[in-house]
């Protein structure tokens, strides 16, 4: 595998982790987040600072996950009393707050970011490690979805009032979704920092949050395989259609509009239903 293909593979794996992480919050638990790129950035900047200070991958990776998850817990706690559009605005504000802090902080490199991040130490094995992390994230999210925690998330998403009447502690599960989802975003940020060797504010802005949300919506809210496939598709699409690179935000916004209007359930569940129907007709 050449350097270009390896680079695309790693970026695809990182995007898969990001899509899965937001799927826990928005897809399973129904908490719309438009600031998810901030937690991606927290993981990346944490890794960059620790790596520059001499700490290795095995210290930076859990630190990035824990710090991003802790920040997600704080944002989730502050957003407990809001929902729907107001929750989306609150999470968007958290994303802009992160960008403002980074841009005005000399310790974080300001507009220039942090460059010359030391390598992970895994050398040629690092691309495989990134893919293994994506596989692990998929297995973890599948386990969450099939566990009592996932059932509670889906109950909160379907009808929060009804879930509360059944004795489900909705604030607790909202916070759990935010902590787990943002912690996984921190993992993606750590892998991204070592992958690129530099971090800057442009990689964690609002367009990136829209891109991650588009992955979840296009794949199907709550669908694990949908998030994986849509993340892979939207990673490869700019490589196939380079002329849209300057219009990413417009394209992702249009995709979101079309999906929510005509295929609100997402592409993967639609394809799966069609495949089952064709299989049933063939058996008949």
Give a concise summary:
The chain is mainly alpha-helical and 284 residues long. The chain has one domain (3-205).
Detail the topology: elements first, then pairings.
Elements (H helix, E strand, L loop, with lengths): L2 H26 L7 H17 L4 H22 L5 H20 L22 H21 L1 H11 L1 H6 L4 H27 L9 H14 L4 H17 L7 H15 L4 H17 L1
Helix pairs in contact: 1-5, 1-6, 1-8, 1-9, 1-10, 2-3, 2-4, 2-8, 3-8, 5-6, 5-8, 6-8, 9-10, 9-11
Give a verbal description of the structure.
It is a single chain. With 284 residues, this protein is mainly alpha-helical. The chain has helices spanning 3-28, 36-52, 57-78, 84-103, 126-146, 148-158, 160-165, 170-196, 206-219, 224-240, 248-262, 267-283. Helix 1 crosses helix 10.
End-to-end separation in angstroms reads 44 Å
SSE pattern: HHHHHHHHHHHH
What about the largest sheet? none
Domain unit count: 1
Mean pLDDT: 87
Helix percentage range = over 70%
Rg measurement, Å: 19 Å
Low-confidence stretches: none
- Count of discrete alpha- or pi-helical segments spanning 4 or more residues: 12
What is the strand content? under 5%
The counted number of beta strands is 0
Write down the overall geometry: globular
């Amino acid at each position: 595998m050449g350097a270009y293909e390896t680079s695309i593979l790693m970026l695809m794996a990182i995007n898969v982790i990001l899509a899965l992480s937001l799927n826990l919050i928005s897809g399973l638990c129904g908490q719309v987040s438009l600031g998810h790129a901030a937690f991606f950035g927290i993981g990346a900047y944490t890794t960059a600072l620790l790596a520059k200070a001499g700490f290795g991958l095995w210290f930076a990776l859990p630190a990035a996950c824990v710090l991003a998850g802790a920040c997600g817990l704080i944002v989730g706690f502050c957003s407990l009393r809001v929902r729907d559009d107001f929750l989306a605005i609150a999470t968007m504000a958290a994303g802009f707050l992160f960008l403002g802090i980074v841009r005005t902080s000399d310790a974080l490199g300001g507009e220039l970011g942090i460059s010359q991040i030391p390598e992970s130490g895994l050398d040629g094995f690092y691309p495989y490690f990134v893919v293994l992390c994506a596989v692990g994230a998929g297995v973890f999210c599948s386990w969450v979805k099939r566990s009592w925690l996932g059932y509670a998330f889906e109950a909160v998403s379907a009808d929060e009032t009804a879930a509360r009447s059944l004795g489900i502690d909705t604030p607790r599960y909202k916070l759990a979704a935010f902590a787990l989802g943002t912690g996984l975003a921190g993992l993606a940020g750590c892998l991204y920092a070592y992958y690129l060797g530099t971090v800057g504010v442009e990689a964690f802005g609002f367009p990136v949050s829209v891109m991650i949300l588009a992955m979840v919506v296009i794949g199907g809210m709550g669908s694990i395989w949908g998030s994986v496939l849509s993340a892979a598709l939207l990673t490869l699409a700019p490589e196939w259609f380079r002329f849209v690179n300057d219009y990413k935000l417009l394209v992702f916004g249009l995709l979101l509009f079309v999906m929510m209007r005509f295929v609100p359930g997402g592409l993967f569940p639609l394809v799966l239903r069609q495949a089952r129907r064709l299989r049933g007709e063939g058996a008949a």
